[in-house]
Design a protein that fits this description.
Elements: H1 2-21, E1 28-30, H2 33-43, E2 49-51, H3 66-74, E3 77-80, H4 90-94, E4 101-103, H5 119-126, H6 130-139, H7 152-169, H8 174-199, E5 207-211, H9 215-221, E6 225-230, H10 239-251, E7 256-259, H11 266-272, E8 278-281, H12 295-312
Parallel strand pairs: 1-2, 1-3, 3-4, 5-6, 5-7, 7-8
Helix pairs in contact: 2-7, 2-8, 7-8, 8-12
The structure holds zinc ion (ZN).
Residues 59-60, 147, 211, 213 line the site of zinc ion (ZN).
Length: 314
Amino acid sequence: MLHKNTLLCATLSTALLGAVTGTANAAVVASIKPLGFIASAIADGVTTTEVLLPDGASEHDYALRPSDVKRLKNADLVFWVGPEMEAFMDKSAQQIPAAKQVQMATLPNVEPLLIKGSDDDDHDHAGHDHGDENSDEHHHHGDYNMHLWLSPEIARMSAVAIHDKLVELMPQSRARLDANLQAFEAQLAQTDKQVGSELAPLKGKGYFVFHDAYGYFEKHYGLTSLGHFTVNPEIQPGAQRLHQIRTQLVEQKAVCVFAEPQFRPAVVEAVARGTSVRMGTLDPLGTPVQLGKESYTQFLTLLSNQYASCLKGE
Ligand SMILES: [Zn+2]
């Protein structure tokens, strides 16, 4: 009896405090859209999910607006990859207590799954001058490829982590959060199978991507990437690198080169010109997909279709 009263009292005062300080309608704030896809599936019907990075911006090059800083501060939960990806929010995230954030890169089971970034071969071949090299260093994701949202496996682990944090923060919504996680995992397993069978016949068809973002997806589905134009999309590949890619396109009989909606550099077209290589587009951020229960699996399906439509050819 006493226990019940104490709980009720605590709940009431938390609610009142929330109302007074105006934090009652804070939400889950995700750094970039694909993370918003995962978060919104878990938070569905419980709390809202917001995305910091505006559509059309690059995950590699963004500066927080004062309103973003405020949103981060007021968030119930902040979900991001980590400072090696979203350097733009590192300073703000440092002010947020650990209980109120999920950092994809530091989840307990993620580390053994990390794959190396390939900055070194870019440095060897790109022929940048040293000024370029410095800024490359600065923007770079570190030793590992940090586009972790492109791994269905890491996405699932992140969903579990978000679920657990939200249950801690909103224990009254546990039933709904449990159901959301279960639905997410079921959808993901099903989509994973579908995407797997769409992409299976495309194994061995070589291609180049614009930036080194897709390693997790490619590894998971056994695709045959021949390489990338650049590690950091903010830095255009040098003439030497382009020449080398063009040679590889022909020698290794690449089928496609992929640009991105965020980056449609003339260099990608120039390299493919006069060869039989097709042009495609890959969107690593799922720009046209709306947040919601099924958005992450819609994103995987969209990406899969983007690979398939170019690699299949007609
Ligand atoms: Zn990237």
